[in-house]
């Protein structure tokens, strides 16, 4: 039988990677939900989701960096706060009776946050390339006093100082990193709505920041997941072969979907429409998990 009877999950992973990468996400929340619905062992499930995340967001981060659209200085507090906590969260053992309800709740909350951030996201999306936009405000926040400064600042001019805003972002990164590590996702699905609601930056800046956030948290969470069970690489491979022998096809599908999604992010899809579609997907997965677990 084709792919051991798992053709549809491979197809859904491809679609999820296509949609999420277009919005700057990795898709870990949907991958995790799909794997839970297919009753994959909860011990290997987060590692597989995080690996798929990495396949998708690595391309997004490269695209944003190459186009000088990554607000590096403003990303630093969020990333620094999240990395150790994502590792800690990934290393905490969770029984299935705790893992599934926690995942379901986080998906529903994330979906609601995405829908609530729609109005703020529309404003930032429509003004992201206009004079006086959040992007220009970001430039001024980095210490720029020239009105005719180009939009993309050289890395050598980045400035980083500790203040209340910095401590708030460190705390936010730590909280979301811990949650991401616990449920085995990158955390961008939580970070992006918060940044939109607080008018942190333009839609493009938030997408770039979310991609980097997901990348570093996926790496830290993957290390934590591996250390939690004290498995070697060969043992991880054996566990994947036992509980999800079709896992290589998932990696191939998300890689291809991520590549197409990165191209789509150049202008095929509306960022507002993508966020709404993502919200519906996440809400549906969370509600479905809650329904199945309650049976």
From TrEMBL:
Localization per Swiss-Prot or TrEMBL: Cell membrane; Membrane
UniProt KW Transmembrane helix keyword: yes
Biased composition range(s): Polar residues: 124-147
Transmembrane segments annotated in the record for this chain: 7-25, 45-65, 72-92, 98-116, 167-194, 206-225, 246-265, 277-294
Keyword line: Cell membrane, Membrane, Transmembrane, Transmembrane helix
Keyword Transmembrane helix belongs to the record: yes
Highest taxon of source: Bacteria
Protein's membrane topology: Multi-pass membrane protein
Region (Disordered): 124-152
Homology family: Belongs to the 4-toluene sulfonate uptake permease (TSUP) (TC 2.A.102) family.
Name of the protein this chain belongs to: Probable membrane transporter protein
Originating species: Rhodopirellula halodulae
